[in-house]
Amino acid sequence: MSSSIVGSAAQDVSSDRVDRLIADEEQVFLRRQPRSAELIARAREHLAGGATSNWQIAQPQAVWLSHGHGSKVYDVDGTEYVDMHGGYGASIAGHAHPAIVDAVSQQIRRGTHFAQPTENAIWIAEELSRRFGLPLWRFANSGTEATMDAVHLARAVTGRDLIIKVEGCYHGHHDSVQVSVLPEADEVGPRAHPVGVPGNSGIPEAIRNLVVVVPFNDPEAVARALTEHRGQVAAMILEPVMMNAGIIPPADGYLAAIRDLLHQAGSLLIYDEVKTGFTTGPGGITASSGVVPDIVCLAKALGGGIAVAAIGGTTRVMSAIADGRYEQVGTFNGNPLAMAATRATLSEVLTDASYAHLNRLAGDLRERLSSVIAEHRVDWHVVAVGAKGCVTFRKEPVREYRDFLQIDDRLGHLHWLMQHNGGVFLPPWGKVEQWLLSVQHDTADVDRFVANFARLAAAVAS
Ligand code: PLP
Question: pLDDT at position 3, please?
Answer without folding.
Answer: 47
